[in-house]
Amino acid sequence: MTDLAAAGKALDITRIRQDFPILSETVNGKPLVYLDNGASAQKPTAVLDAMDHYFRTSHSNVHRGAHTLGDRATTLFEGARETVRSFLNARSTNEVIWTRGTTEAINVVANGLAETLSEGDEILVSRMEHHANIVPWQMIAERTGAVIRPIEITPAGEIDESSFDGRLASDRARILAITHVSNVLGTVVPLERLLTKARERGLYTVVDGAQAVPHYQPDVQALACDFYVFSGHKLFGPTGIGVLYGRETLMEAMPPLQGGGEMIERVSFEKTTWNTLPYKFEAGTPPVAEAVGLGAAIDYLGQFSRESLETAEQALLQRANELVETVPGLSVIGTATHKVPVMSFKMEGLHPSDIGTLLDQQGIAIRTGHHCAMPLMDYYGVPGTARASFAFYNTLDEVEQLFQALQKIQRLFAE
Ligand SMILES: *Cc1c(COP(=O)(O)O)cnc(C)c1O
Fold it and tell me: Which atom of ligand 1 is nearest to the CA of 100?
């Protein structure tokens, strides 16, 4: 692309920020600099309005027929499911299951695949997984006698592909559960290559897309994974809603995790039969407004080209990388070649939580701690890290404010 074409496609960040009311807040007397997007992203007015409008004009329980509001609610709810189907390029809305989030989605998959496992079967998970993609597998391993086999990483924070190949070579390998993007390191995993190899070996493939969808639009047919999961709240949508994409034939065969209303076809004391997909996995009254809000978030993002979002985000990451050396004693954890705009770091003489508190005093929100990735913390030999995670609505000026604040902290507090 020529510079001119790139400039023409550049986002108007000043205008975009007006779509996110919370970005105009002040914190401790300073304008908010929100760099904790990896934990939860902020919501545009389009999402707030869609949920408000739903409650004011259309709220009722869904799939009950009998009256007009029920029809309106069902239309909006199922419309949002179609929005997600299109976003993921799934074949059918039968493959799009609403969950409370990534965590619940992985629990549903783990429970569903449990009956395919026997004692000694192996579940492969990488060293950089979020606990949500480790613990459900450990619980299933406990139940079935299967074992967890970690896939190691390199010091830069990339998948160690010889470790991956070694794990895959085992005749007992059955399931690959892997993140698309690391929430701590920002590493983008070479998913196509890994999934192709896993598929050739006949493994079930489960992808944790929680950190990927704010930056990339995954095509589940091109990826050819069996399951892909994410949360609404990291994709500029509401909390309490997430998505489990699952290949239809597998989902047909899998048992549901929860029983109750909505997920049954017929109940009798002799035998209960399950509803068809996707409802089989959606026991109880679903989070209707949240689904509508997530649909609105995806529609909102759809007005921008993914290239223009990525260009803006990569400029933020590049600026942050350039400024690292302006803070003596600061070192970055996670230096993969292919990263989303996430920077984990430590500072000599300072505990991560102190960095977080001192930045907050200056209006800057980052996250500190183990980031629900303790095996990864063990690998780097740290109790936790400080993590700045950027979204497309952040500015280069905010990146500079972060580093100016870190310089000040370093001068005043690091010993
Ligand atoms: C946040 C996150 C999760 C958990 O998401 P919830 O919304 O808390 O269920 C899982 N995996 C990754 C990579 C995450 O970043």
Answer: 9
